[in-house]
Amino acid sequence: MGALEKIKEIEAEMARTQKNKATNYHLGTLKAKIAKLRNELLVEQSGSGGGGEGFDVASKGDARVAFIGFPSVGKSTLLGALTGTESEAAAYEFTTLTCVPGTMKYKGSKVQVLDLPGIIEGAAHGKGRGREVIAVARNADMILLVLDAGKEGLNRHREILEQELETVGIRLNQQPPDVTYRKKTTGGIKFASTVKLTKLGPDPVKVATQVVREYRISNADILVREDITIDQLVDVCVGNRQYKPCLYFYNKIDTVTIEEVDQLARMPYSIVGSVKQRLNVGSPEDDDLIKQEMWKYLGLTRIYTKRKGQPPDLAEPVVLSQIRKGTTVKSLCQNVSSQMLRDFNFALVWGKSAKHSPQRCGVAHKLLDEDVVQIVTKTNRQQQKDRNYSNLVQGFSDQYHKKKQEARKKKQGRLKT
């Protein structure tokens, strides 16, 4: 029996089993088995070499957003409205056959937007080009699910897309569970929690032990700091889950009634609009609702840098991402130069994150949008007191002599010719 048949058999058994406290242990074991089989199936398919050509798109900009949706929902038209990039759009399905990138410029940031081919039900197991599309989604900072408002009521496209992404380990609008999981070589399985666990049944220790043993792990320490479910415990054991912010955009609202638009707009993490009628979606230069929501979901922060005795540079801000490196002073130094972080002394901060202007801060200070920061580096005397100063000087000296020797060799080569 193959992995797919086993998964279907376990799903059928779960559907027959009543959900109550008495069956919680049995259901937890079945969920762990399904997660293990799905993970094995994905590894087997990725190693078979039958997936076809992937989408090789270089990562650019301050953030990356992937458009995912069924065919002919308006992804290519939306890409043109946000970035000005022309992507083929037509009245028939599967117009876009490859990944089309574009750059959205908003509030001084550059966000890479990817128009991906439409996917169908079963994409997680390789139908269509689903495997390549989902692989790009795993590497994106945010997912924008584009849905057709006129088809959503009957076809349940939102539910199908969520299930496809859930199958390959992408968790939408969720945070990683606050669980410490550490494998050991001896000692058995030790389970502890700092809160009352109400979702793991009457005996959480028994359920957690059985879930861990499904992955052939006999020695581990598990510390739970929040009331988690069995699915979250399985995700911790698997360890390869991706947690992505997701915005649902219901396009073509001009084809449905006002009552249906109101119902869709009230759904969580959702906005409604019409690219064709310019409803909540404008031109690339407009400050419309969809750009505002994308900015909020990406967690971008603009920081203006300042030199000593000069006004701040308000023309080109440094854009930090909460999803990537964070929005601390340390992240700012890493974004500008690694040498700046090495010679960092303190920072002067003006803006909403400062208690007074200016505030002297360290590398752990969290910055807010439109803060002004001046980085003060160590003086020569302070650098000389550093224990690694001699190694640093030797490294600079070696680098200087290496460049000088290479220049001498090039000059000798030109003279010979």
Quick summary of this structure?
The protein is of the alpha/beta class and 417 residues long. The protein has helices at 3-16, 24-47, 75-83, 130-139, 152-155, 157-167, 204-213, 230-238, 258-265, 289-298, 329-336, 338-342, 380-384, 389-416, and strands at residues 63-68, 100-106, 109-115, 142-148, 170-172, 179-183, 189-193, 220-224, 242-244, 246-251, 270-272, 300-305, 318-321, 344-350, 359-361, 371-377.
Report on the structure:
The model is unreliable at 48-53 (pLDDT under 50). Helix 1 runs antiparallel to helix 2. Helix content is 37%, strand content 20%. A six-stranded mixed sheet has the order 2-3-1-4-10-11, sandwiched between helices. Strands 13-12-16-14-15 form a five-stranded mixed sheet. The protein has 417 residues and is of the alpha/beta class. The chain has 14 helices and 16 strands.
List strands and helices in order, with pairings.
Elements: H1 3-16, H2 24-47, E1 63-68, H3 75-83, E2 100-106, E3 109-115, H4 130-139, E4 142-148, H5 152-155, H6 157-167, E5 170-172, E6 179-183, E7 189-193, H7 204-213, E8 220-224, H8 230-238, E9 242-244, E10 246-251, H9 258-265, E11 270-272, H10 289-298, E12 300-305, E13 318-321, H11 329-336, H12 338-342, E14 344-350, E15 359-361, E16 371-377, H13 380-384, H14 389-416
Helix pairs in contact: 1-2, 2-7, 2-8, 7-8
